[in-house]
Design goal:
elongated
Length: 85
């Protein structure tokens, strides 16, 4: 019974994350989710493929953040407005 409850909890968390991704899918620069589904023991996501991951992109940014400050503030402002909606 515990395994079933854990499995349902994982699915609910996944669906909440999918709902968030769908809500922001039209925002430029946000990873777009095209479709999703559940198999027996996994959740499948069909997403746009990008040249690099967010982690790789962050590591490529210059150490001096002053040059990218406008970009970072723009990203923050977009995310903040999405969370308020």
């Amino acid at each position: 019974m515990y395994h079933l409850a854990l499995c349902c909890a994982v699915q609910m968390t996944a669906f909440k994350e999918i709902a968030i991704m769908q809500r922001v899918s039209n925002v430029p620069g946000i990873c777009r989710i095209h479709d999703f589904g559940i198999c027996t023991d996994s959740i499948m996501l069909v997403m746009t493929k990008y040249r690099c991951s967010l982690r790789e992109w962050r590591h490529r940014q210059p150490e001096d953040a002053c040059h990218q400050l406008r970009l970072y503030l723009n990203i923050f402002a977009q995310l903040a407005s999405l969370l308020q909606a």
